[in-house]
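Co-fold these.
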Amino acid sequence: MPRTQAATTRRDSVSLELARDRLGVPAVLFFVLAGVAPLTVAAGVIPTAYQTTGLTGIPAAFIAVALILALFAVGYVAMTRHITNSGAFYAFISRGLGRAAGVAAALVALLAYSCLQVGLYGAFGPSAASEAAAHIGVHAPWWAWALGAWAVITVLGLLRVDITGRVLGVLLSAEITVILAETAAGLARPAGGQLSFATLSPAALTSAGFGAFGVLAVVAVLGFVGFEQAPVLAEETRNARRTVPAATYLSLGLIAFVYAGASWAMAVHAGAGQVAAAAAQQGPGLLFGLGGSALAQAAQVLFLTSLFAAALAFHNCVWRYMYALGRENVLPAALGRTGGNNIPKAASLTQSATGLVVIVAYAVSGQDPMTRMFFWLGTTGGFGILLLLALTAVAVVAFFSGDPRGENAWRRAVAPALSAVVLAGIVVLAVRNYHTLLGVPPGDPAAWVLPASYALIAATGLAWALVLRARRPQVYARIGLGAHVVTGQLTPPVGQPPR
Amino acid sequence: MTGLGGTGRLADDLYLMAHHDRTGKPLLQPRAAGLGLAGGLLTELVLAGHIEVEDGEIAIADRNPPEDELAGLVLAVLLGQPQHPARDWLAFLARTAAGHVPRRLEQAGYLTRAAGRTPWSGQRWVPVDPDCAFAPVARAQAALRPGRPPAAQGTALAGLAVACGLGSRLLPCGPPQARRHLDAALSQLDPGLHELIAQTQAAVDSALLSHRV
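Predicted complex below.
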C-alpha cells in the first residue's frame, strides 16, 4: 500500500511510539457498548417499558431514534474534531452556547448519569433476590442484594478496580449473543402463528396518540445512552478524525439492530395486544422465556453481570464528571483531588453516598424497585440525556456559526439544526406526556416533579455560573476546558494524521 | 555516597516521593507516575538552561550535552525531532521514564533490585536507606513553608508532585493555606517552568478523564 508507506517514512519515531499506545475503533466501540449494557436494556428496560407505558411501538421507536441520533451525530462528531475535552456534552455546550449554559448543562448531566447509575440497583436487587431464592435457597429482600452490590461497587470504586477490557469484551459478546438467540427463538414462534410487522411500522409510533412518540423516544434514548461517550476517548485515539465517527455510527447501528430485534421478538411472541400484560406478569422473563430453559438460565446470570457492570461503568462516569468539575472549581475543589494511587476518593464517595440514600429511601417507602426505582430513575436519566442532546445540537450550530472551520454546510448547520428541532419537539412531547412514561394517572405529582428537577438544577447551574463570573472571574474564564483548565490552553484540533 | 541531600536531580527526588520509602511500592498509577517523571526530566533540562517552554512548545536553548547521562539522552531525543508540542514529549518520555530514572538512582546507590513478591511478578526496586528515600518529601514540604523564599527546584518538585497525584503525601494534614502557598510559589516560578508543571498536570488529568489511569 504505497500511500501508507509514504506516510510512514514521513512519520518520526516519536509519533510512531505514541501511536502504539493509542486506541483504535474496536477499543472505543467496546468502551461505548460497555456503557450501553445491552442485556440491561433488553431484559430490564424493554419489558418494564411495555408494562409501564402500555405502548407497543417500542421496536419502531428504536429505529426512529437511531435515525434521529445518526442525524445528531453528524454535527456532534464534527465538533469533536475541533475541541477535545473528555467532558463531552458540557464542554461542547460551553463552547457553543456560553459558559453559563455550560455549567447548567454539566449539572444536568451529573443528575442524569447519577439517576441512571442509581436506578440500576433497583433492577439488580429484585433479580438477584429471585435468582438466589430459586437456586441457592437464600431468601433476602431486594434491598439487601441492592445494598450488597452497592457495597462492592463502593469498594471497587475506591480501590480503582475496573473491569478489565478483556472481561468486559467477553461479557459484552455473550450478552449480545444471548439477545440475538432469544430474538431468533421468539420470532420463530409468533403468537397466532403469523409474523406481524405492526410494531416495527412507523404507524405504531403514533397509534396511541401523537404524544406517545415523545414517550417512546425517551425509552429508546435510554437504550442508546452510552453512544455519546466516544468523544471522551478522542485524545487517546490514533486518528480521532476517523475513529470517533466510526465508533459512534457503528454503535448506533448495532444497538438499533439488537434492541429493535429483541423488542420486536417480544411483541411478536406474546402478541401485540397482550405484550403489556405479559410484561407485567413476567418482567425480564419476557425476554428470557423466548427461548429454551438453558438459554433462559444463561441469560438470567448474564443479566445480573450486565447490571453490575453497567452500575460500575456509570459510577466511573459520574465521578469523572465530578472530578472534571472539581478541577475547574465549578464544584468544590475537594472533588477534584486524588489520594493515593490517583484515586479521586471524594468524588467516588459522593456518588456512593447518593446511591446509598436512594436505596434506603426506596427500601423504607416500600415501592416496587423494578418499576419505581429502576424504570423511573432510568427514564428520568434518559430524559436528561435527551435534554442534553437537544442543547448540544443547538450548541453545534452556534459553535460553527461564527467560523465554519472547514466543515461543510451539512455537517455544521443543516444536520444539527434539523436534529435540534426534532429533539426539542420530542422533549416537549415527553414533558407533556410524562405520566404515560411513568405509568401513572395524569396529574400525579411524580409526572411533573421528575422533569422539573432538571429545570431546577439547570437554573441552579445558571445562577452559580453568574455568581462565579462576578466573584471568581478567573475560574469563570476557564469553564469548559476540562483537563486543560490548569494550562488555560484550548487544545488544537486532533485527528491530523501523524506526520 | 548517598545522603539525605539526595542526588540533586529533580526526577530522582520525584521517583523516591512516588514510592514507599521502605518497600518501594508505587504510590501512583503507572501512567501518572510516568508522566510525572517525564515532567521531572524536562524540568531538569529547563533548570539547567538547556530548553525553554513557551506556549506549549519546547525550544532548545543550549545544545551542549549536560553532565548527567540520562539528561543528555533526553536532550539528544529532543534535538533529533524538535517539532512536537510539550504534551507529546511528556507522553513519549512517560513510556520509558519509569525504567530509566530508577536505574540512575541505582547507579547513585539509592535503590537496589529485589525479587518480586510473587513468582510471576518481575524484579522490583527497593530503597537502600528509608530515611534517604523519605528525604525528598521533607525537602518539598520545607520548600512550601511560608516565610522562606521559595527555591526554584524545591518549588518545582512540589508542583510536579501535586501535578501527578502526590498531593495527599505532600500535604497530608491539608490546611488550605498550604495549597494556596504552593500556588503562590508556583506563580513566582519562571513562566516556562510553571507552564511545564501545568502541562504535566493537564496530561495526568486528561489520562484520568479518558479512563487510561
